[in-house]
Write a structure and sequence with these properties.
mainly beta; Immunoglobulin-like; 6-stranded mixed sheet; 5-stranded antiparallel sheet
Length: 703
């Protein structure tokens, strides 16, 4: 958010927020008065367009990121803002009571500003004609050319921003005053900008992505953070920082500054700095898990209730935010529900329903004599209507309704029958098909065709404290995922059919315990030569408390060919590799991962045993020359040997991962080689040359 305050003195920064915060506080107070009304359960759906700024690469290469990477980021946004993120269970107990489902969802746009259906939903690809951008270039050159109407789309620009800028966002405007005067910006600059090196996640079902190579920022939380700014969230340390500053949310503990010093294993309270503000004896430890801090992605897992209130108040009242809720560039938000039919065949029927969308242009009403086929449209009525009068005559009739707009249509409501029908029979053969950490797939058999919907009841534990979990399951459906559950928890589930005449008996009850989440990755893996046994000993930091064991893998080159060499028990932090004796002048790479019933952790860092490195080739070291350094394109290697020989040349990053591993025959005692440096990710590398006498090595920086 520092982009909002270029060269602005601290007191002026704080003063800049006065008007906006006064306006926002008033709207939050008004929202509190509405607690308990239907507004409290509203879901805010935001249409999104992602402008992928590239330099002419094919889709999927370089800056022209694949659609799957965009989809992974939208999935993360929806999980984080609805508190469906799998790591929500890492929220410390002391913060669980304030952790919030913000009730904000994001959907990729279906149509462009001209009304054309997008080939790739929500994606606008633009060739900017350059490799990388700074914020001034994006704001002044790219945004005005590519921005879509900010009252209909939340614009997200994804581009190569280099190595120093992760992302930034425009600030919302307050109605009737300028709000934050700096970076209020023009409408064609309104939106979020994210570096393509941190956009998307390697932890969704869409796979992993080559440019998300920094494990500190590979879970999509930079975008979550910046979208928080887009909806008026401040950092926990406030506008300028310090324990006297304020983010205007009382449920985020006072924090003096950012906590970018916190990373995996995210120990809480942080053992080095548990609480940066201690003047108030009641102040809690720093909430570094908040999405608005600067901690590593793996350590973030919550918004708070008051942060949620700020964002909701902005969406309901701020220009360019409020209009998004009624934008028709996505299909109607949700299907109509709670369909109720009253009356009789003689006097006619009244059909009533709940309108769950803010962006429909109308409703289509259909009727049939069969609950699940043969429907005919009988009426089209305007938006915001929630009732209709029908006189179909004698017999049993079924009605269903869908919302429509220019982008398409919602799902149908569950059908409902006219009230001259019998209640359905109970479903049978309820069973558990599959389950995960937070979801259970159940199936059943319908023995009656009279049910228009199925109700799912869930109880935590085997008690009889069942609650209605789902009530909008179609009556002809015979399976569903029950979601939103907790890990490692015993659940009881039962179901029943319903229609306008009443409810069936309950089915039988099934019991299942959800899986644990996979353990966290181990860190600090090192490989040492054990003098007593003449074997290799691995030592690592165990960061998880729920693993069942560890798998250990070994390789000769760190690029490929890893094979599993052992499985060791839980709560282990070292292992002696008794499977072989390492030969002289050998090089081996190891990595480990923890596992449990719920899956595998990510792999640890790569640990390396390098017997060659113990010997130094002095003549080689004195003549070894690698240039230019830093390098962005071609890297040249020169050295003079005392005799011609075969030389091994390695290029590794600082974790030991090898990117080149070749053998070169010298000619006239001269070693020469060229690296194509521009094909490697930017960062610090080591060029290592291994000869018959030993080795030489030089660190290089690839930009």
């Amino acid at each position: 958010m520092e982009k909002l305050f270029p060269d602005t003195p601290p007191e002026q920064r704080k003063e800049a927020f006065t008007g906006f915060e006064t306006w926002l506080k008033k709207n939050i107070s008004q929202k509190h008065l509405k607690k308990g009304t239907e507004e409290a359960s509203s879901v805010y759906v935001i249409p999104v367009v992602v402008h992928v700024i590239h330099n002419g690469e094919d889709i999927g290469d370089g800056s022209n990121i694949p659609a799957e990477q965009v989809l992974s980021q939208i999935e993360v946004l929806n999980q984080d803002f609805r508190r469906q993120n799998s790591d929500r269970e890492n929220t410390p107990d002391v913060f669980n009571d304030v952790a919030a489902d913000t009730k904000i969802e994001f959907r990729l746009a279906v149509i462009d500003p001209e009304g054309n259906v997008l080939d790739e939903p929500g994606i606008d690809r633009y060739n900017g004609g350059r490799d990388s951008w700074n914020d001034t270039q994006l704001d002044n050159d790219i945004k005005p050319l590519t921005s879509w109407n900010p009252t209909k789309y939340m614009n997200i620009w994804v581009a190569d921003l280099g190595s120093s800028l992760l992302g930034y966002s425009s600030w919302p405007k307050s109605s009737g005053n300028d709000g934050v005067p700096i970076e209020a910006g023009n409408d064609n600059q309104d939106g979020v900008v994210i570096n393509n090196l941190v956009f998307g996640s390697n932890y969704t079902n869409y796979g992993s992505f080559d440019n998300l190579s920094d494990d500190r920022y590979d879970r999509g939380r930079t975008c979550t953070h910046e979208v928080g700014h887009f909806f008026a969230l401040l950092h926990p340390w406030g506008v300028v920082g310090g324990c006297s500053d304020d983010d205007y949310c009382d449920d985020t503990p006072t924090t003096s500054s950012d906590r970018d010093d916190v990373f995996s294993p995210c120990e809480f309270p942080d053992p080095d700095k548990p609480n940066t503000c201690t003047d108030d004896e009641n102040d809690l430890p720093d909430m570094f898990q908040n999405f608005m801090d600067y901690t590593a992605d793996a350590c973030m897992n919550l918004f708070t209730m008051q942060q949620s209130e700020r964002m909701q108040a902005v969406m309901e009242n701020s220009p360019n935010r409020n209009e998004l809720l009624s934008s028709q560039v996505i299909t109607p938000h949700f299907a109509p529900s709670n369909l109720v039919i009253t009356g009789n065949a003689l006097e006619g029927y009244t059909i009533e329903w709940t309108d769950n969308s803010l962006n429909e242009s109308g409703f289509i009403i259909e009727v049939s004599t069969d609950p699940y086929s043969g429907y005919t449209a009988i009426a089209s009525i305007p938006a915001n209507y929630t009732s209709y009068e029908a006189s179909p005559g004698d017999g049993v009739f079924y009605y269903r309704i869908k919302a429509i707009n220019q982008s398409g249509e919602s799902d149908y409501s569950n059908p409902q029958a006219t009230p001259n029908i019998l209640p359905p029979d109970a479903p049978i053969n309820l069973s558990v098909v599959e389950y995960s950490q937070d979801s259970i797939l159940i199936s059943w058999e319908n023995v009656s065709d009279l049910a228009t919907s199925i109700e799912i009841y869930v109880s935590e534990g085997s008690s009889d404290s069942f609650v209605l979990w789902l009530d909008d399951v179609s009556g002809n459906q015979d399976s569903i995922w029950v979601t939103g559950l907790s890990s490692e928890t015993l659940y009881a589930i039962k179901i029943r059919g319903t229609n306008s005449a009443g409810d069936s008996d309950f089915s039988g009850t099934v019991l299942v315990t959800t899986l644990p989440y996979p353990p966290s990755a181990s860190t600090g893996l090192s490989v040492l030569f054990d003098d007593d046994s003449r074997r290799l000993r691995l030592i690592w930091n165990e960061t998880s408390d729920n693993e069942d064991g560890f798998e250990i893998y070994r390789s000769l080159d760190s690029l490929s060919g890893y094979e599993e060499v052992a499985t060791v028990a839980a709560n282990t932090s070292q292992w002696l590799d008794i499977t072989f004796y390492p030969p002289p002048l050998s090089l081996y790479y190891y990595k480990i991962r923890a596992y449990n019933e719920g899956g595998y952790s990510a792999f640890s860092n790569i640990g390396r045993y390098d017997a060659i490195s113990e010997l130094e080739d002095a003549p080689l070291k004195s003549s070894l020359f690698v240039y230019p350094n830093p390098v962005s394109e071609v890297l040249y290697l020169n050295a003079v040997m005392d005799v011609d020989q075969e030389v091994q040349v390695l290029l590794t990053d600082i974790t030991g991962k090898a990117y080149e591993n070749i053998v070169i025959e010298t000619e006239s005692k001269v070693l020469y080689y060229e690296f194509e440096a521009d094909k490697y990710p930017p960062g610090l590398y080591i060029v290592q040359v291994n000869t018959t006498k030993g080795r030489g090595a030089i660190k290089i920086l690839i930009q």
